Amino acid sequence: MSLYTIDVAPFKKQHLTYIAVSFIPMVIAYVLASRGYSMLTDPTINEVIKWVFLAGTFVASFIVTRKHKEQLLSIHGLPSFDEQVAQYKKIYDQRLVVNVIIGITACILYVLTARRIFILFALFDLVVLLVMFPNKNVFRRELNNNEITFK
Fold this sequence. Notes:
mainly alpha, 5 helices, elongated, transmembrane helix, membrane, transmembrane
C-alpha cells in the first residue's frame, strides 16, 4: 500500500453535491425566465446589473485564486501527508462553494432580468465544476506529490 493514499470518495461525494446544488437553480431559473417571470424590465438597470456582476465575478475570482495559491503554499509546509490532505479538503470545498455561489447568483440575476448572458454564466460555472472533478493529476499537482494514489 502506498504511503500517499487519498480516500477520494468524500471528495467525489462533495463534488457531486455541489454539482446538484448548482444545476437545480439553473433549471428553475430557466423555467421561470422562459415563462416570463422576470422582474426587472428596464434595459438600463439590466445593463448596470450585467456589468456589476461581470466586475464582481472578475474581482472575486482574482481574490479567491490568490488566496487559494497562498493556502496551497502553506499546505506544502505541513509535516504529515494526512494533515496536507485535511487542509486541502478545506481549500477544495472553498473553491467549490465560490463557484456555486457565482452560479446561483447568475441564476438569480437571470430570473430578475431575463438576460441570457446570466444563464450562460451559470452554465459556464457548471462546466467548470464538472472539469474540477477530483482526479489524480490535480491532487498530484496541487499537493506537489507525484506518488499519490487513490483508495
